[in-house]
């Protein structure tokens, strides 16, 4: 398309827009497909962004945190905890080390054992939260020293369960982006089909326009503007409905785990607004291709 | 202006036109006659590039039509006004928009469109039917509207394919007068018609050559008309 044609496309031409009959199944199909795909795209985008945040948080927070578990007889527990804290505070690369209070440990077990937990009646080990500096401590060296000075201590750097969680979150994010790509592809395919159908249904209109001296650009533009605007408006409606659905999702909470907080955060709320633009761009390109091919075949 | 040189056209394995040569000079008036199915419409389509010849070549305004791309062909069609036998309108648009189509697609501004339209609607006697949709028009009105559309860009050549095929004698005469007026304005006119009475009536008013298609070839008709 020439620069002048693109300008005419953007500004619009009411007379050119009227050249193609307004009714038909393709109009409703394009609107519906754009709305439905935009609705799904909002959720795919929300899923991608939320799982990305989750993966970053898990990777970041857990990478710097470790837990020291001290299993010792009740009469030796305080002494071993004291000794462990002393070792940790002397270790280079440890930012802080703190023994969890009984209330904190009870809160950690509450989801599984209930809120009225008598912790003193259970053989629950003492937990120590260890926060690493950047660069962190030498894990193997610290383990060796702890095994020598605090025999009942086991240092867990969370890597055993952190990696699968981060992998799962990253996989979900990947699936979200793949879904978005599939939505874009499916939208393009559906609009191409609709444009082909519209061109075939309006073969006589095209013939008349050619007879009176219309160029291919002019004819293509009449179809492209219509499909692009339909996709834009349909996707606009779908996006608004999708954002409404995301707003109705449960807010992020610790109790809900990763299934809550799947919405957008901060500037992320602006991203769905790109979906109608993307739908319009897809419709524009799909219709451009379809009209070129059809006009070539009708020659 | 438009020239066919040794043109042949085959369709579906059969030869419809063979070794046809004719030149439509500027300001000339030609009738094209012959029995139904002889190839009148095909020859007209060859003249405005809707069909490409199987053999020979068609030249329009000094350009070989075979060498024109689609955009160039669109520009050429703005210089050749065509009246189809079945008129071919956009049925969802009112008559004014249909007649203004060549102006609209060639990017003329609305003021220019309005001026040309008013003049033309008066000329073809359709001012009162401006907002009617094409299916609401009579056969004669459709033919006059098609003629108005064909000439609204003031083309150099007007091609009319059986323009009086579906209308009564009185309306045929009226349409013929419009074509003669166009010719007197300097337009080149080619009218395909099997209506010999109409051709005889025209010959008394305008200097016209009559071409007859017979046995796939084009002949100049003589006193036997």
UniProtKB/TrEMBL annotation, chain A:
Could you tell me where this protein is found in the cell?
A: Cell membrane
Q: Which InterPro entries match?
A: ABC3_permease_C, FtsX
Keywords of the record, alphabetical order, are:
Cell cycle, Cell division, Cell membrane, Membrane, Transmembrane, Transmembrane helix
Which residue ranges does UniProt annotate as crossing the membrane? 29-50, 175-201, 227-249, 269-288
Q: How does it sit in the membrane?
A: Multi-pass membrane protein
| One example of a Gene Ontology biological process annotation | cell division
What's a GO cellular component annotated to this UniProt protein? Answer: plasma membrane
Protein name per UniProt:
Cell division protein FtsX
| Origin species | Pontibaca salina
UniProtKB/TrEMBL annotation, chain B:
**GO MF term (any one):** transmembrane transporter activity
Instruction: Write down any Gene Ontology CC term.
Output: plasma membrane
- Key word ATP-binding present: yes
UniProt domain ABC transporter: residue ranges: 2-225
The UniProt keyword set, sorted, is: ATP-binding, Nucleotide-binding
Taxonomically, which superkingdom? Answer: Bacteria
Metal-binding keyword on record: no
- What are the leading ranks of the lineage? Bacteria, Pseudomonadati, Pseudomonadota, Alphaproteobacteria, Rhodobacterales
Question: What InterPro entries does the record point to?
Answer: AAA+_ATPase (IPR003593), ABC_transporter-like_ATP-bd (IPR003439), ABC_transporter-like_CS (IPR017871), ABC_transpr_LolD-like (IPR015854), P-loop_NTPase (IPR027417)
What protein name is recorded for this chain? ATP-binding cassette domain-containing protein
């Amino acid at each position: 398309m020439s620069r002048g044609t693109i300008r005419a496309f953007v500004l619009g031409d009411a007379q050119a827009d009227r050249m193609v009959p307004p009714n038909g199944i393709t109009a409703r199909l394009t609107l519906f497909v754009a709305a439905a795909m935009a609705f799904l795209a909002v959720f795919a985008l929300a899923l991608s962004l939320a799982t990305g945040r989750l993966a970053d948080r898990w990777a970041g927070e857990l990478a710097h945190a470790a837990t020291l578990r001290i299993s010792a007889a009740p009469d030796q527990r305080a002494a071993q905890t004291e000794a462990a804290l002393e070792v940790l505070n002397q270790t280079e690369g440890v930012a802080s080390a703190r023994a969890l209070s009984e209330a904190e440990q009870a809160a950690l077990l509450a989801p599984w054992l209930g809120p009225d937990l008598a912790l003193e009646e259970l053989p629950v080990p003492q937990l120590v939260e260890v926060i690493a500096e950047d660069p962190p401590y030498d894990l193997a060296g610290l383990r060796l020293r702890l095994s020598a000075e605090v025999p009942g201590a086991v240092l867990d750097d969370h890597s055993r369960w952190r990696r699968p969680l981060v992998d799962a979150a990253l996989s979900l994010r990947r699936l979200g982006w793949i879904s978005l790509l599939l939505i874009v592809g499916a939208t393009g395919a559906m609009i191409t089909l609709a444009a082909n159908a519209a061109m075939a249904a309006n073969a006589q209109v095209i013939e008349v326009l050619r007879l009176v001296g219309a160029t291919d650009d002019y004819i293509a533009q009449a179809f492209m503007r219509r499909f692009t605007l339909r996709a834009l408006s349909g996707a606009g409606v779908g996006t608004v409905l999708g954002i409404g659905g995301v707003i109705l999702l449960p807010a992020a909470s610790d109790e809900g785990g990763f299934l809550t907080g799947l919405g957008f955060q901060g500037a992320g709320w602006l991203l769905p607004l790109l979906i109608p633009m993307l739908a319009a761009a897809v419709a524009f390109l799909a219709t451009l291709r379809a009209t070129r091919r059809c006009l070539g075949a009708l020659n | 202006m438009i020239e066919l040189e040794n043109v042949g056209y085959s369709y579906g394995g059969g030869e419809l036109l063979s070794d046809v040569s004719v030149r439509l000079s500027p300001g000339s008036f030609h009738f094209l006659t012959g029995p139904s199915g002889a190839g009148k419409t095909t020859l007209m389509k060859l003249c405005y590039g809707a069909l490409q010849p199987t053999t020979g070549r068609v030249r329009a305004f000094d350009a070989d039509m075979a060498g024109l791309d689609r955009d160039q062909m669109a520009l050429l069609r703005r210089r050749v006004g065509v009246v189809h036998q079945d008129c071919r309108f956009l049925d969802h648009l009112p008559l004014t928009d249909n007649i203004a189509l060549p102006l609209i697609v060639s990017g003329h501004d609305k003021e220019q469109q309005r001026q040309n339209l008013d003049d033309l609607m008066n000329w073809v006697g359709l001012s009162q039917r401006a907002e009617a949709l094409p299916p609401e028009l009579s056969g004669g009105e459709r033919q006059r509207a098609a003629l108005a559309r064909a000439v609204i860009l003031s083309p150099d050549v007007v091609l009319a394919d059986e323009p009086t095929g579906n209308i009564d004698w009185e309306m045929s005469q009226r349409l013929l007068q419009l074509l003669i007026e166009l010719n007197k304005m300097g337009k080149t006119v080619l009218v395909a018609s099997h209506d010999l009475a109409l051709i005889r009536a025209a010959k008394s008013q305008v200097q016209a050559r009559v071409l007859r298609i017979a046995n796939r070839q084009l002949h100049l008709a003589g006193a036997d008309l």
